[in-house]
Specification:
Distance between the termini: 24 Å
Number of domains: 2
Number of helices: 10
Shape: globular
Number of strands: 0
Structural class: mainly alpha
Strand content: under 5%
Oligomer: single chain
Length: 209
Protein backbone atom coordinates (compact mmCIF):
# COMPACT_ATOMS: atom_id res chain seq x y z
CA UNK A 1 0.00 0.00 0.00
CA UNK A 2 1.18 3.57 -0.63
CA UNK A 3 0.90 6.76 1.41
CA UNK A 4 -1.15 8.42 -1.29
CA UNK A 5 -4.89 8.64 -0.56
CA UNK A 6 -6.91 6.28 -2.69
CA UNK A 7 -9.69 7.64 -4.83
CA UNK A 8 -13.01 5.84 -5.00
CA UNK A 9 -13.25 3.41 -7.89
CA UNK A 10 -16.38 3.47 -10.01
CA UNK A 11 -17.92 0.01 -9.84
CA UNK A 12 -20.71 -0.99 -12.19
CA UNK A 13 -23.53 -2.75 -10.41
CA UNK A 14 -23.65 -5.62 -12.90
CA UNK A 15 -19.94 -6.39 -12.60
CA UNK A 16 -18.14 -8.61 -10.13
CA UNK A 17 -14.51 -8.13 -11.02
CA UNK A 18 -11.67 -10.31 -9.85
CA UNK A 19 -9.12 -8.23 -7.98
CA UNK A 20 -5.49 -9.26 -7.80
CA UNK A 21 -3.42 -9.07 -4.66
CA UNK A 22 0.25 -9.53 -3.83
CA UNK A 23 2.56 -12.35 -4.82
CA UNK A 24 2.79 -14.32 -1.57
CA UNK A 25 -0.52 -16.19 -0.93
CA UNK A 26 0.45 -17.14 2.62
CA UNK A 27 1.31 -13.55 3.55
CA UNK A 28 -1.87 -12.27 1.90
CA UNK A 29 -3.98 -14.80 3.81
CA UNK A 30 -2.32 -13.95 7.12
CA UNK A 31 -2.80 -10.21 6.69
CA UNK A 32 -6.40 -10.68 5.54
CA UNK A 33 -7.34 -12.75 8.56
CA UNK A 34 -5.45 -10.57 11.04
CA UNK A 35 -6.96 -7.31 9.79
CA UNK A 36 -10.50 -8.69 9.56
CA UNK A 37 -10.39 -10.16 13.06
CA UNK A 38 -8.77 -7.08 14.58
CA UNK A 39 -11.23 -4.70 12.95
CA UNK A 40 -14.34 -6.66 13.83
CA UNK A 41 -13.23 -7.42 17.40
CA UNK A 42 -12.32 -3.83 18.16
CA UNK A 43 -15.43 -2.22 16.69
CA UNK A 44 -17.84 -4.78 18.14
CA UNK A 45 -16.26 -4.41 21.58
CA UNK A 46 -16.78 -0.63 21.51
CA UNK A 47 -19.25 0.19 18.72
CA UNK A 48 -18.74 3.95 18.58
CA UNK A 49 -21.50 5.22 16.23
CA UNK A 50 -19.12 7.63 14.52
CA UNK A 51 -16.55 4.90 13.84
CA UNK A 52 -19.24 2.54 12.57
CA UNK A 53 -20.58 5.13 10.13
CA UNK A 54 -17.05 5.78 8.86
CA UNK A 55 -16.58 2.07 8.24
CA UNK A 56 -19.89 1.88 6.39
CA UNK A 57 -18.77 4.69 4.09
CA UNK A 58 -15.17 3.45 3.79
CA UNK A 59 -15.54 2.08 0.25
CA UNK A 60 -17.29 5.26 -0.88
CA UNK A 61 -14.44 7.44 0.33
CA UNK A 62 -11.45 5.21 -0.40
CA UNK A 63 -12.58 2.99 -3.24
CA UNK A 64 -13.54 -0.66 -3.33
CA UNK A 65 -9.96 -1.44 -4.37
CA UNK A 66 -8.73 -0.46 -0.90
CA UNK A 67 -10.84 -3.23 0.60
CA UNK A 68 -10.00 -5.61 -2.23
CA UNK A 69 -6.31 -5.20 -1.48
CA UNK A 70 -6.91 -6.59 2.00
CA UNK A 71 -9.67 -9.18 1.66
CA UNK A 72 -10.68 -10.06 -1.89
CA UNK A 73 -8.38 -13.08 -2.22
CA UNK A 74 -9.38 -14.67 1.07
CA UNK A 75 -11.45 -17.83 0.87
CA UNK A 76 -15.15 -17.14 0.53
CA UNK A 77 -16.19 -18.77 3.80
CA UNK A 78 -13.75 -16.95 6.04
CA UNK A 79 -14.12 -13.71 7.99
CA UNK A 80 -12.14 -11.56 5.52
CA UNK A 81 -13.83 -13.24 2.55
CA UNK A 82 -17.20 -12.59 4.14
CA UNK A 83 -16.49 -8.93 4.87
CA UNK A 84 -15.27 -8.53 1.29
CA UNK A 85 -18.54 -9.90 -0.08
CA UNK A 86 -20.63 -7.66 2.16
CA UNK A 87 -18.73 -4.57 1.02
CA UNK A 88 -18.86 -5.71 -2.60
CA UNK A 89 -22.62 -6.22 -2.38
CA UNK A 90 -23.12 -2.77 -0.86
CA UNK A 91 -20.95 -1.18 -3.55
CA UNK A 92 -22.93 -2.93 -6.26
CA UNK A 93 -26.20 -1.64 -4.80
CA UNK A 94 -24.92 1.92 -4.49
CA UNK A 95 -23.62 1.86 -8.06
CA UNK A 96 -27.09 1.09 -9.44
CA UNK A 97 -29.77 1.51 -6.80
CA UNK A 98 -32.49 1.89 -9.45
CA UNK A 99 -31.58 -1.42 -11.08
CA UNK A 100 -31.08 -3.05 -7.69
CA UNK A 101 -34.53 -2.01 -6.54
CA UNK A 102 -36.08 -3.22 -9.81
CA UNK A 103 -34.58 -6.70 -9.50
CA UNK A 104 -35.29 -6.92 -5.78
CA UNK A 105 -38.91 -5.85 -6.26
CA UNK A 106 -39.37 -8.39 -9.05
CA UNK A 107 -37.79 -10.99 -6.78
CA UNK A 108 -40.34 -10.19 -4.07
CA UNK A 109 -43.12 -10.72 -6.58
CA UNK A 110 -41.87 -14.12 -7.76
CA UNK A 111 -40.43 -15.42 -4.49
CA UNK A 112 -42.18 -18.29 -2.71
CA UNK A 113 -39.88 -18.17 0.32
CA UNK A 114 -39.52 -16.02 3.44
CA UNK A 115 -36.38 -14.39 2.02
CA UNK A 116 -38.05 -10.98 1.45
CA UNK A 117 -38.99 -10.92 5.14
CA UNK A 118 -35.53 -12.05 6.26
CA UNK A 119 -33.85 -9.39 4.11
CA UNK A 120 -35.93 -6.75 5.88
CA UNK A 121 -36.66 -4.42 2.99
CA UNK A 122 -40.07 -2.77 2.72
CA UNK A 123 -42.45 -3.66 -0.07
CA UNK A 124 -42.42 -1.81 -2.36
CA UNK A 125 -38.66 -1.21 -2.14
CA UNK A 126 -37.49 1.76 -4.19
CA UNK A 127 -33.90 2.93 -4.74
CA UNK A 128 -33.79 4.87 -1.46
CA UNK A 129 -35.05 1.88 0.50
CA UNK A 130 -32.51 -0.43 -1.15
CA UNK A 131 -29.68 1.97 -0.31
CA UNK A 132 -30.86 2.18 3.29
CA UNK A 133 -31.06 -1.62 3.45
CA UNK A 134 -27.46 -1.99 2.24
CA UNK A 135 -26.24 0.39 4.93
CA UNK A 136 -28.37 -1.27 7.58
CA UNK A 137 -26.99 -4.73 6.79
CA UNK A 138 -23.40 -3.49 6.90
CA UNK A 139 -24.11 -1.62 10.12
CA UNK A 140 -25.39 -4.87 11.61
CA UNK A 141 -22.05 -6.53 10.86
CA UNK A 142 -20.36 -4.15 13.29
CA UNK A 143 -23.05 -3.53 15.89
CA UNK A 144 -25.55 -6.39 15.90
CA UNK A 145 -25.63 -10.15 15.57
CA UNK A 146 -23.21 -10.90 12.73
CA UNK A 147 -25.04 -14.10 11.82
CA UNK A 148 -28.31 -12.21 11.40
CA UNK A 149 -26.61 -9.56 9.23
CA UNK A 150 -25.17 -12.29 7.01
CA UNK A 151 -28.54 -14.07 6.80
CA UNK A 152 -30.16 -10.79 5.74
CA UNK A 153 -27.50 -10.20 3.09
CA UNK A 154 -27.87 -13.76 1.80
CA UNK A 155 -31.66 -13.38 1.63
CA UNK A 156 -31.25 -10.10 -0.24
CA UNK A 157 -29.00 -11.84 -2.76
CA UNK A 158 -31.44 -14.70 -3.29
CA UNK A 159 -34.40 -12.37 -3.80
CA UNK A 160 -32.37 -10.22 -6.21
CA UNK A 161 -31.18 -13.32 -8.08
CA UNK A 162 -34.78 -14.46 -8.51
CA UNK A 163 -35.66 -11.01 -9.82
CA UNK A 164 -32.75 -11.00 -12.26
CA UNK A 165 -33.75 -14.42 -13.56
CA UNK A 166 -37.36 -13.32 -14.03
CA UNK A 167 -36.37 -10.16 -15.92
CA UNK A 168 -33.88 -12.18 -17.98
CA UNK A 169 -36.69 -14.49 -19.04
CA UNK A 170 -38.73 -11.48 -20.15
CA UNK A 171 -35.83 -10.22 -22.28
CA UNK A 172 -34.77 -13.57 -23.69
CA UNK A 173 -36.20 -12.89 -27.16
CA UNK A 174 -36.06 -9.11 -27.42
CA UNK A 175 -32.65 -8.46 -25.77
CA UNK A 176 -30.71 -11.72 -25.63
CA UNK A 177 -27.41 -10.12 -24.62
CA UNK A 178 -29.00 -8.30 -21.70
CA UNK A 179 -30.82 -11.48 -20.78
CA UNK A 180 -27.52 -13.39 -20.67
CA UNK A 181 -25.94 -10.64 -18.58
CA UNK A 182 -28.75 -10.78 -16.04
CA UNK A 183 -28.57 -14.58 -15.92
CA UNK A 184 -24.88 -14.33 -15.05
CA UNK A 185 -25.64 -11.72 -12.42
CA UNK A 186 -28.28 -14.00 -10.92
CA UNK A 187 -25.76 -16.84 -10.75
CA UNK A 188 -23.15 -14.67 -9.04
CA UNK A 189 -25.71 -13.40 -6.53
CA UNK A 190 -26.76 -16.97 -5.79
CA UNK A 191 -23.12 -17.93 -5.21
CA UNK A 192 -22.62 -15.01 -2.83
CA UNK A 193 -25.83 -15.94 -1.01
CA UNK A 194 -24.58 -19.50 -0.50
CA UNK A 195 -21.24 -18.25 0.82
CA UNK A 196 -22.86 -15.77 3.21
CA UNK A 197 -25.30 -18.39 4.53
CA UNK A 198 -22.41 -20.78 5.13
CA UNK A 199 -20.45 -18.04 6.90
CA UNK A 200 -23.46 -17.30 9.09
CA UNK A 201 -23.56 -20.92 10.24
CA UNK A 202 -19.81 -20.90 10.85
CA UNK A 203 -20.10 -17.74 12.96
CA UNK A 204 -22.82 -19.31 15.10
CA UNK A 205 -20.67 -22.38 15.68
CA UNK A 206 -17.54 -20.33 16.38
CA UNK A 207 -15.80 -21.46 13.22
CA UNK A 208 -15.65 -18.27 11.15
CA UNK A 209 -12.06 -17.05 11.18
Amino acid sequence: MTDRPLRPVKFAGYQFESFQGGEDPAAISRVAHETANALLSRVRAQPDPEVVERLIAFADENGIDAIAELWSRATARSLPGTLWRIYLLRTMIRADSAGGSLYFQRGIEVSRTIDPVVAGAPDPAGPDEILALADDILRGVFTGDLAIALDRAAAFCRVSAAGCTSVADDLDNSEPERSTELTRRALRLSEIAADLSASSKLWRSGGLD
